[in-house]
Amino acid sequence: MIEKIRTLAWFAARPAFWAHAAALAARRLAPSRDTKAHRAEATAWAAARARPLAEALAAMGLDPPSDGLPALPAPLLAEASARAEAAQVRMGGPGDLDLLYAAVCLLGARRVVETGVAYGWSSLAILAALEGCDDAALASVDMPYPKMGNEAFVGIAVPERLRARWTLVRRPDRYGLDSALRVLGGTVDLAHYDSDKSWQGRTWAFPRIWAALAPGGLFICDDIQDNLAFAEFAGSLGLSAAVTSAHGKYVGLLRKPAA
Ligand SMILES: C[S@@+](CC[C@H](N)C(=O)[O-])C[C@H]1O[C@@H](n2cnc3c(N)ncnc32)[C@H](O)[C@@H]1O
Question: Which domains does the chain have, with CATH numbers?
Answer without folding.
Answer: 31-255 (3.40.50.150)
